[in-house]
């Protein structure tokens, strides 16, 4: 191995910079040249990359986002686009690629590895929906940002005896909502994995007030069948009968941009270093992630064909704790 490239793709996540830094510095330490690709797969398709030395990744470990920038690149989903990407890598004599990103990005990594090109993935998404890593880069920081907002909303909800609805990110996965709901002491958590009926939500709110609660805080995942907007609309439409108003706060991209906490800096560093270690051992076509207390490489074929289960039993715990 002489030359490798690294890119960040899909949704950005706090801690991606720590992973880039670790890839560059452990690569340089192995005597390799490392190229940084701009804007994910788009940079491969358009041959937009530059060599990165140890000093080029100074002062980024504490920053959110990604110094390489990211993008969504529809062209890479086509074989033609992937052939262009391969052409850029081969023309520059780059022997292997490290892809830092979530489920979509790792599907792209798998497609490239199927074309006989060595690729190693690094598990990074705030959604925590990626098989092969119990926790992915960015989740912890995003969760803490969501919690900060929930804590503040609880203060104002208590002062005004109101019901607040907080929508958190996570795409089709309820992990962030469930964990933020439990850690934030929410009265109710709504996730895509479990069907919700607005009438049941209303019933639970009524019960909470009967139990003497001065406020109600509902955490809802953006991918839930009834997301914040739909729930609020339903409650508005049936206001007279239901007797509640729901104040909606959608956290959206605010959750992504924070400075990575210690956990994500360490996870990004560990996984970035593990990715170059894999390549140096001649292992590719794998995703490096964290399983239990260890860093583990899982074949990309298994990663893209498996679904990470969510412990929905925690929803019952959330319900009990809201009593
Ligand atoms: P994330 O990696 O955060 O899940 P996306 O799902 O948006 O983000 O995927 C990021 C990029 O990965 C896409 O824009 C595309 O370039 C690439 N990608 C996603 N799915 C595939 C696929 N099935 N085949 C090839 N490339 C893909």
In short:
Helices cover 42% and strands 18% of the residues. The chain is built from 12 helices and 11 strands.
Topology:
Blueprint: E1 3-9, H1 16-29, E2 33-37, H2 41-45, E3 49-52, H3 79-91, E4 96-101, H4 103-113, E5 119-123, H5 139-160, E6 163-168, H6 175-183, E7 188-190, H7 198-210, E8 216-221, H8 228-237, H9 239-242, E9 246-250, H10 262-280, E10 286-291, E11 294-299, H11 300-305, H12 313-321
Parallel strand pairs: 1-2, 1-4, 4-5, 5-10, 6-8, 6-9, 7-8
Antiparallel strand pairs: 2-3, 10-11
Bound molecules: adenosine-5'-diphosphate.
Structure description:
With 323 residues, the chain is an alpha/beta fold. The chain folds into two domains: 3-138 and 260-305, Rossmann fold; 142-256, Rossmann fold (3-Layer(aba) Sandwich), CATH 3.40.50.460. Helices cover 42% and strands 18% of the residues. It has twelve helices and eleven strands. The protein has helices spanning 16-29, 41-45, 79-91, 103-113, 139-160, 175-183, 198-210, 228-237, 239-242, 262-280, 300-305, 313-321, and strands spanning 3-9, 33-37, 49-52, 96-101, 119-123, 163-168, 188-190, 216-221, 246-250, 286-291, 294-299. Strands 3-2-1-4-5-10-11 form a seven-stranded mixed β-sheet, sandwiched between helices. Helix 5 packs across helix 6. The longest helix has 22 residues, at 139-160. The radius of gyration is 22 Å and the shape is elongated. The protein starts with a strand and ends with a helix. Adenosine-5'-diphosphate is lined by residues 9-11, 41, 72-73, 76-77, 101-105, 107-108, 111, 125.
